[in-house]
Write a structure and sequence with these properties.
Blueprint lengths: L1 E14 L3 E18 L4 E10 L3 E12 L7 E9 L14 H6 L2 E11 L2 E8 L12 E9 L3 E8 L6 H10 L13 E10 L2 E10 L15 E11 L2 E11 L8 E12 L2 E11 L5 E12 L1
Antiparallel strand pairs: 1-2, 1-16, 2-3, 3-4, 4-5, 5-6, 6-7, 7-8, 8-9, 9-10, 10-11, 11-12, 12-13, 13-14, 14-15, 15-16
């Protein structure tokens, strides 16, 4: 089965010190291919392109074996996004929790679902582990949900291997990942409430005290919180979000307040508009606006 996503965004930003800027970008092009090879074996490939951020690449490549030995447990092998965080939002922008925690790795993942409960465990090698070439990084996720409520908790032994931290380390550490001697463990707790036309989301990331040598990241205990409520009014969805961080200077804004509206133009074409205000750790503000046209097929 072939699927795809295309997102084009026009943005404007006005910062206290950097002044104003605007741009028009192809934010996302995603092409996915799934094949059911046997009754319980499937393969998935996703190609991704993000203008100014990601050159065309294979984003996901996995083989999944379902219902191992009749246990209901699935084994997934390959490159994929680890089950660490949900990052749900009704807004155009990614959440700050996602920017800190989203992790793509080549991993082995065991997962199980039944009666609303879900659980998974995974192992991977990673880059931020003192140059070790062993599968010593791991994590787990457990959750429960129904049509109205979803609750979950996730853990990773190595937050430094997240995509966001990877960029920070490569840009700021004198020797990149070679400077990292110890991994940073972290956890996420999250909840979602859906009541007909109203929804509420909350996600919190907490990390162990850590240091990245040759950078400003010294003895920090990162915290990131995302809260959001949304209401559906006919064909429109209105969303308001508040996000804050602690010990994330030079990495994430200290505070973000966002408001957005989204609607569907046709069955597979939508539009979203979001305004957000960031406050940095030095007290400087920025006002931002983005308009996104998106399609999925």
């Amino acid at each position: 089965m072939l699927s795809g996503v295309v997102e084009v965004e026009a943005g404007y930003s006005d910062h206290d010190t950097d002044g104003s800027s605007s741009d028009l970008v192809v934010a996302t092009v995603e092409l996915g291919l799934e094949a059911q090879l046997t009754d319980n074996i499937s393969a998935s490939i996703v190609a991704l392109y993000e203008e100014d951020d990601t050159d065309l690449e294979i984003d996901v490549a996995t083989i999944t074996l379902d219902d191992l030995a009749g246990t209901g447990i699935a084994l997934t092998l390959g490159q994929d996004y680890l089950p660490f965080g949900a990052f749900d939002t009704n807004l155009v922008n990614d959440t700050l929790v996602l920017e800190a925690a989203e992790t793509r790795e080549t991993a082995a993942l065991l997962s199980w679902e039944a009666a609303g409960f879900s659980a998974s465990v995974f192992v991977f090698n990673g880059d931020a582990d003192g140059g070790s070439d062993t599968l010593e990084n791991f994590g787990a996720s457990i959750g429960w949900g129904n049509d109205n409520i979803n609750l979950a908790a996730d853990y990773t032994s190595n937050l430094f291997d997240s995509d966001g931290f990877g960029g920070f380390i490569e840009d700021n550490a004198a020797n990149g990942f070679d400077d990292i001697d110890e991994a940073e463990g972290a956890y996420i707790v999250r909840a979602a409430l859906n009541l007909e036309s109203f929804s509420f989301l909350a996600e919190y990331l907490g990390a162990e005290e850590s240091t990245i040598p040759t950078t400003t990241w010294i003895n920090r205990e990162l915290e990131v919180l995302h809260t959001e409520m949304a209401v559906a009014l006919g064909d429109w969805t209105l969303a308001l979000a508040y996000q804050e961080t602690d010990d994330a200077e030079d990495f994430l804004p200290e505070e973000r307040i966002s408001f957005g509206v989204t609607t569907a133009i046709t069955d597979n074409i939508g539009i979203g508009i979001e305004y957000w205000k960031d406050e940095d750790y030095d007290g400087l503000d920025s006002d931002n606006l983005v308009v996104q046209l998106n399609t999925a097929f």
